[in-house]
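Aim 2 progress. For Chaperone protein HtpG, the working sequence is reproduced below.
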Amino acid sequence: MAEKETRQFKTEVQQLLHLIIHSLYSNQEIFIRELISNASDAIDKARFKEQTEPDLFADDNDYHIRLAVDKEAKTFTITDNGIGMTFDEVNDNIGTIAQSGTAAFMEALEKSKNETGLSPELIGQFGVGFYSAFIVADKVRLDTRAPGQEKGVRWESDGQGEYTLEEIDMEKRGTRITLFLKDPEEGDQDFTEEYIIRNIVKKHSDFVTYPIIMNVETSEPIPENEIIKDKDGKPIGETYRTVRKDETLNSMKAIWAKSRDDVTEDEHKEFYKHISHNWDDPFEIIHKKFEGVTEYDVLMYLPSKAPFDMFRPERKHGMQLYCKRVFIMDDCKELLPEYLGFVQGVVDAPDLNLNVSREILQEDRLVRNIRKNLVKQIFSVLEGMEDEKYIEFYEEFGQALKAGIPTDFDNKERLASLLRYKTTKSGDKYVTLDQYIENMKEDQKEIYYITGENLASLVNSPLLEALKAKDYEVLLMVDPIDEWVTQSLPEYKEKKLKSAEKGDLDLEKVDDEKKNEYSSLLSFLKGKLESKVKDVVVSNRLKDSVSCLTGDEWAMSAYMEKILKASGQ
Ligand code: ADP
Ligand code: MG
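Predicted structure tokens for this construct:
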């Protein structure tokens, strides 16, 4: 490509830009964090790739991020020597909505329409970080060169629907983003002021693991021999002078490696936001040093809100792996099972080989050991939580825990004890399976449950009449994923889980005499309903209603059939 070409933003990007600019206006400074976070991600990627292709990076592997402001030109520039982007990557990553997918974005957009607008938390989940530049800039220029590429690419846009792409000469690998700043309105911060930038970096990006450097004006003492003095040796002129100097703005401290008491709540909040790309505060912090045969540091956060795309397979996992404070990889699926992928955090394992690949990780004994311990740690934190707090967590992440039951065989029982359900007797309260068992009637042998779409219809289901008559409690399961739970949890603490909706409930056997009495009626009904039902039987299940539909003992529940139909199976 030689010519400069103009392209259109996708429609959803235009909508998104509009939303960002308007809804985040009161939170302007976050663009700095977003751009720094992208630069830091880009350096992570470069370092990862450098391990297998060192030659590509040999010319420039003193990794850092540089900020610069120009008061005259009214620009803010951020440069990194990270992975850069090829032409196609620029086109794919900038100008569309990164990662999360258009569909999900539009969904959330639709949902938020009735509310006050797209909330910052929500925007944070879409990977729209780069576009935050347009909150403060009326033109953004991105120059970038990927390793091994001869030429660089320039992307430029005023955020109004179009962007241009052209090939450029670029001396170094990496990315340079220039923001042509809007004139600040009354009360706005001036982002060409060095001290303002310095404060913002300190506040939001202090723990970024690469130096964030800015050439700043500072005053330094004039060396003794250069000071002009009078005959008594007293200085006549200034003893300090103003100079420009490179300064590293962030402390780069690895907070996971500090001892627990040395990390403040605010540091956790900022760090959590940094690694999770979330905007809200963490719900629970798990910070621990494991000591034993091998030692490693663990810092995990349980988020406050379930991400909208929790179950999307393309969703990144929240764990990052470090070795002696050197980043190895993010999205480290080997550190936690799939269903705990919402947990955000860091593991720093000094005994790990720095050159591990994902393939090796899966087989690594140490990693498997760490994984086991992390899961245990999360469980014991959840088990130790006060009821009210746990329910708050459960309402967001209960589905994730349930997803563990069919998949995490080793921890099935422990996961099951973390389940909570409302029941025919509990009203608004949740009960545990243990509480259920404790409350079982003397003659009751099994744990009864019923699945369906909503509590109201379940409570009044005629299928429950017989059980209610016996004063048995029934678990009300209204989550589609409960179907998988019940299928993979045939029993809990030696009590069978039994669907109130399937087969003969076995409460009292219907005697043969009664069966004979009704045989002609039954065969008549069977004939009439041949194409619709499998069988018509006499049952003790009902007390007030005349008839009801049930499933075979081994058949799918009605709700499950519905779910499968809806998902096209
Ligand atoms: P996210 O960081 O959540 O992916 P962003 O909108 O912040 O979303 O960035 C979009 C994408 O643009 C990134 O995923 C990355 O591929 C690319 N990108 C942004 N900034 C840089 C950079 N400094 N160097 C390399 N790639 C970048
Ligand atoms: Mg980003």
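The longest strand covers residues 212-221. This observation will guide construct design in the next reporting period.
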